[in-house]
Amino acid sequence: MSLTRRTALATLASAPFLAAPAVQAQAPVEITFNYPVAVGGPITKLIDGYAEAFSRENPGIRIKPVYAGSYQDTLTKTLTSMRGGDAPQMACLLAVDIFTLIDEEAIVAWDDLPGSDAPWLDSFYPSFLENSRTAGKTWGIPFQRSTIVQFWNKEAFSAAGLDADKAPQDWAEQLAFAQKLTKREGGQVTQWGLQIPSSGFPYWLFQALTTQNDVRLMNAEGTRVAYSDPKVAEALQYWMDLSQKHMVHPPGIVEWGTTPRDFFERKTAIMWTTTGNLTNVRRNAPFPFGVAKLPAGRRRGSPTGGGNLYVFKSASPAQREAAAKFARFLTTPDRAANWGIETGYVAVTPAAWETSAMRAYVADFPAAAEARDQLPDAVAELSTHENQRVTKALNDQLQAALTGRKAAVPAMADAQAEATRILRPYN
Fold first, then answer.
1. Are strands 133-134 and 141-153 parallel, antiparallel or unpaired?
2. N or C: which terminal CB in the chain sees fewer CB atoms within 10 Å?
């Protein structure tokens, strides 16, 4: 055999090995998914499980959850990574971060992503979409969403001569109930009638009171606030009077994080908190409890709250397509129902409440539907451009009033002046 023929045969024999790299499967598309973990409940296990299930259904996509602390920690870490050229492709951040993320030119609209059709984008509860849309675009997909509800200790109600199955329905009744429920021994309060947290998210709890007093704290464009509206000061005065005048509510600042524990330890008979604590309360309350919509002032109402899903401009076309698939996976009716059942957050679409699992859950635990039933009266959570600074202006003055350092009207006037100064460039 000639040298030339031997060389040709050797080349043919080795050809499959030389061609192997060309026929290997492509590397999976990887999505870094920043997620807040300071929200209570079995969050990390659930998200890890959803990510793994999605990857089994979509072997060409790998979801990498990164748990980044509180919502604030997650936002800070995400924006810092973005400015350093290492942004995640997807994150769950507060719905109220919408204007901040747009102003930072950090995110893309879901309307512009493949697979994000109008029927899906319109399938969420309208009250959740208020904090998800602006300028004709959908920037956030509702996922970890909530409203504020009231929890009450039925044993404490019975002991106070109240109907254990009836929550206060309006502000006057709330005060009357709280007066009966507050217990004192030796000059010391052993059980408060009512507890509304004023740390962590004081503006959010306060927005429930302003909504009930029939005033909205901001415009839809996020460029103006109504802190100095007389009805805002009136709502603050009601909150102040609960502790400073009627003495049925703890004085000073009430901690957000310890309020559920105070409820479990019978230090308060009624608490206001996120529906996201529903599963926590169900598992840990050592007494029968009730859950209800918040009481009415001039009207009923609560702000919505919680987190939306965002996609970042750093994502490649393939990653954007994968992120849209993952968001649709997370919000299918069965999965949204599972999320609501396991965490207490509100399942974000009407279709989720029609699933067999959710129907069975509500039949067994009717309180689970209270937050959903409050949605028709819910409003968008306080959200503006420069949102953290604008809400801080309100938080600082709320705490000054609640600690007795300022009266309601001047506190709200000062909050308005600071917020107006911050928002001036947007007007």
1. unpaired
2. N
The pTM (predicted TM-score) of the whole model is: 0.90
Structure tokens at 272: 């206001």
Count CA within 13 A, CB hemisphere, residue 353.
18
What is the pLDDT at residue 25? 55
Q: What are the structural domains of the chain?
A: 29-146+305-376 (3.40.190.10), 147-304+380-426 (3.40.190.10)
- Predicted local confidence at residue 13, as pLDDT: 40
- How many CB atoms are closer than 10 A to CB 380? 23
- Cα–Cα distance for residue pair 260/263, rounded to 1 Å: 5
| Alpha-carbon gap, residue 142 to 92, rounded angstroms | 9
- The residue ranges of the chain whose pLDDT is under 70 are 1-25, 38-41
Max Cα-Cα span within the chain: 112
Which stretches does DSSP call E strand in 154-269?
183-185, 188-191
| 226, 280 contact by CB (below 8 A) | no
DSSP for 78-93, written as a single string: HHHHHHTT---SEEEE
- Give the per-residue pLDDT at 40: 44
Look up residue 38 and give its DSSP letter.
T
Distance, in Å, from the CA atom of 351 to the CA atom of 328, rounded to the nearest integer, reads 13
Beta bridge partners of residue 273, listed in sequence order: 149
- Return d(Cα 171, Cα 72) in angstroms, integer: 32
CA angle, residues 252, 256, 257, in degrees to nearest 5: 125
pLDDT at 115: 87
- CA-CA distance, 113 to 141, in Å (whole number)? 12
Write the DSSP symbol of residue 192. Answer: B
Strand 107-108 to 302-312 pairing: antiparallel
Rounded distance between C-alpha atoms, residue 172 and residue 149, angstroms? 17
Q: Report CA-CA distances (Å) from 308 to 7, 20, 50, 417.
A: 63, 43, 16, 30
**Token match 């919680």: residue?**
306
Cα–Cα nearest to 222, from 96, 307, 393, 75: 96
How distant, in Å, are the alpha carbons of 150, 153, 156, 262, 333 from that of 189?
A: 21, 17, 14, 13, 46
Q: Name 355's Cβ contacts closer than 8 Å, sequence gap at least 6.
A: 333, 334, 337
Asked if residues 290 and 154 have their Cβ atoms less than 8 Å apart, the reply is yes
